[in-house]
Every structure is written in C-alpha cells, then in structure tokens.
UniProtKB/TrEMBL annotation:
Record Pfam families: HATPase_c, HisKA_3
PROSITE patterns: HIS_KIN (PS50109)
Ligase among keywords: no
Protein name (database record): histidine kinase
Gene Ontology terms, MF aspect: phosphorelay sensor kinase activity; protein dimerization activity
Thylakoid listed as a keyword: no
TM region(s), chain numbering: 21-38, 50-68, 123-141
Native source organism of the sequence: Alkaliphilus metalliredigens (strain QYMF)
Amino acid sequence: MYPQLYKKISFLKEQSEIMKIIFLYRYVSLIVTSSFYLLADSTHSFENKIFIVACISISSVIISYLYIKNQNCTDKIMILILIETIGNSFILIPSGGLNSPYVWYSLNTIVIASVALHKKYCWINLVVYLFSSTYLSHLILQKEQTLMQIISEESNLILSFILITGIIQLLTKYAKRVQDEGLKLTETNRKLVLANKKNKESLGYIMELYEATQLFTTQETPSDLIELMLDYSQKVMKTDTVIFIHPRREGKKVVIESNNLAEDLEEVICCEISSIWHNTVESEIPIEMIIKDQKYVFIAIKYNYKVFGILGITRTSTKMQNNYEEITEQLRFLASLSSITLEKFELEKVTEGLLINEEQNRIANEIHDGILQRLFSTSCGVFSIVKRVREMNTDEIEEELNIIRRAVNNVMKDLRSTVYGLSWKKDGANNFISDIESYINEIKALNNIDIKFDLTGDDELLSIAQKKAMYRIICEGIGNAVRHGNAQNIEVSIISRRQGMSLIINDDGKGFNMRGIDKSERFGLGVKNIYHLTHSLNGTIKFESQIGKGTRINIVIPNVIQEMYKEEVV
C-alpha cells in the first residue's frame, strides 16, 4: 500500500524510506487532526475552522517541499523547524492547548528534528510546545485555573509526550543505523555485481584463450594460423579491426592481412609501420599510434631473434579506452602464443628436412652396403652363365638360374625391410588404430561405459594430417558424449575408400536442441574444435540430435592421397 502511495507523490519518489515515513505521518496526522477539529465543539465558528484547516494544509505542503529541497543543509532545516514550531504554537493556543487535536500534528517537527538535527533540538522543540500549550495558553486565554492546576490535570498527557519523544529518538537512531547498513549493503551489492560481471568476463576470456590455444596448435600452415589469429584477436579483444603485418622481404613491399580494414588505410599504415618498424620490433611492450584520427596498438610477434610480423588492433570501445593495461596484457599474450606457434612451424620444417635427410641416408647406406652388392653379384652370375651357356647342359643351367633366383629373392626381402622403415605400420603394428583403441579402452575403464569401434577399408589411404585430425575428432566426440551427454553406449565407425572417408559417432546420451544452437550460434569448445578440424581438411560435418534421443555426428572428408594419385597420372 505504502509503495503505491509513494509513487503517486512525485517529490517522494527519490527520497529515503525515513523521509517517506515522516511525510506520510505528516499528511495522515493532518487529515485526522483536522477532521477531529472540524467535528469537535468549540467556540469557533465552522467558517473559522475551515479557514484554520486551509491555512495549516497550505503551510504543510509548502513546508514539506522546503524540507525536501534543503534536507542536506542543517542550518536551513533548523530555521524551518523554528518557523513551523512557532506556527504550530500559535495554532495550539486558540485551538485548545494540550487538548487541541493539532497537538498530535505538532509531533512532526519533533520527528524531523530527531532525524535531521542533534537530539537536544528534539527536546527543545518539545519544551516549546509544552510551554506554549500550558503557560502561554493560560496567559493569553486567562483561564480560571492556575498554571500548576493545568499541569497537574494534563500530567498524564505531558508524560505521554515526553515518552513519545524518547521513543521517537530511539526509533530514529535505529532507523538511521538500518539506513546506513542498507546503504552499505547496496554499495556492497553493487561491487559484487561488478565483481560478478568481471568474473564472467574473465571466465569467458579464459575459455576463449583456451580455445585459441587448442586451435592454434592444430594449424597445419602459417597462413591458416594467421587467419585464425585475426579472428580470435578480434573476438578476445572485442575490437573492430585486427591487422597482421608481414616483415619486409628483399624486393617486396610490406604485406598487410586484415579482417576489417579499409583499402585506403593499407598504404597509410604500411608507411607508418615502416617508419617505426625497428622500434616496434625492439620494444617489449605494445606501441600506440594515431593514424587518421584512429588509435592503433601494435606489438611485434617474435621469438628470440626471429621476427614473424606485427599484430595490431584498433582502440574503439569505451572499455578498451578505460582498461588499457588489461588490453595490452591480452595483446601480449596473443602475440606470445602466436610467436610460439609460428616458431613451431619453423622447427617442424627443419625437423622434417632432417628426418628426410636421415631416411635418405639410411636407405642409401643400406642399399649401397647390402642390396647393391648383391645385385652386382647377381649381375656377375648372369654374365657368367651367358658366357658358358653353350658349354652347359640343361640341368647345370637350371641349377645356376635357381641360385640367381634365390639371390634376387633375398635382395627383394632386404629392399622390403628397408622400405618398411618409412611406413606407418612397423613391426606389424598399426599405430593409428592402436592409439584410437587405447584411448577408447581408457575412457571405457574410467567411465564404465560401452564403446564400439569399427574400421572398414584401408586406413593407409589416409594422409598423416587426416589421421591426426581424425584421432582428435574421435577424442572430442567421445569426450563430449561422456561429459555433456551422459552417454552409456557409443559407436565409432570409420569407412575409408579411395574417393574419401567418413566418420560416424553415435551415442545414446541426452542430446540437445539443434534449433537453439543454430539460432544462438553458441557451441562448446569440443564442438568448435570438431568443426575447425573438419573444415581444415575440406570436409563436411552434420549433427543430428534430439533431446532425450542421443546425438549422431557424420563427417565426410575427401581423400587427399587419391587426388594426388590422379594428378600424378595426369
């Protein structure tokens, strides 16, 4: 009831609860006391009563407005209380003194003094009312009773006013304490809301960085990494534009890659970056520049002494302007992560070259030391037979040819064992299949679930990159089914043919709403990784799921080896 009443009184909307209660009592007491005054028998005519009530009502509205306007100024409040106290005293004297109904309305100034001023002013206010209602009333109206008789007759009422004043002071004291605690709680709640918002932002930031870390390490080429770096930098940093500037090569211009940069700005940025390239590369902290009234922050992506390029973002949002240190730390982390991944590509190139050289040397040595010698001996034996063929009979020729055949068979065995050193299968074991089965057995043992794995076709048709991606997709798919779907039965099927391969992961978990995911475009890290790994192999992916009916993942990937074979044939 009270909140609805407060809403209807416009000037009370933004006031504290104490002030609302004070002014609610003021108007309620005014209405009640005026009603009793109008209905009571007195020496005043009804017209005079109406005039007095109207004057009190007008003064009450005016004084209420003045109290609210000056509530933060103690001196003005003191003056307003003095004026109202004098006015109430002049009303109490002719309207009956302590027997006047307006004596209860006069308590308003005592309440306001208790709230806005020191407690001594509250008691002074009470003394003024008692003095005017007893002594001044007796003096002006010239009553037959003596002053002591009036005080004796009204002693109970006087005692009531004294006790009411004391109770008002106690209630005001605790109301102020509650109000102060409420303000502290409001401030604490505001801080908690901000802290909770920051925690959510930090958690989202950590998840995005974890996702970026996972995806960065799965890239196969530097160009894919740079494209992914631009996307995730924009997502993590919440910026409009992210650019990557390649280092200048001999005879070539600076190259810029961007996801949202106007063409007319590329030349300008190239010139500006060229002028500060050395300073940016040498600096360990981001460097800020203003290009065409737009703020940019640049940081070098380097590892030890090798520079891979410069990463830059625009500072546009208010958050980026206010949290510059946080933004620079995020930018440094992304630059560090990118430099490590790019360095990995460089090391993989060197390692791959060393491995190829090592294998070439091993094969050359084995062929030279064993196979070549045997082939030379075989060649000599054939030459000897050719020279003596006219002198040899059929049995001797047959015996010599059998010797040569056995020698050739031995050479073939040695050559086969040498070539097997380059195959995925070693010592008769298939590491690709064994790794998948090992992971499946581990998940089955840890979660007490049933997982079936089936391979149809020849897995040797898959390239190394496809096998690595396929292994990670299977791990992500099974992990999602167990963690999020609570599946008890999972089926994993790989079909490998020359045209391509397909992977199907089917589970009986709780499933999810496909429409909700498609509409919000919100995926978990596992699903995003599956999407990215599939698209990195130029494959297609399809999810089928219903709540309570499990999930089915169908992935189709073209066969790279088959395409390479066709190109060689052509």
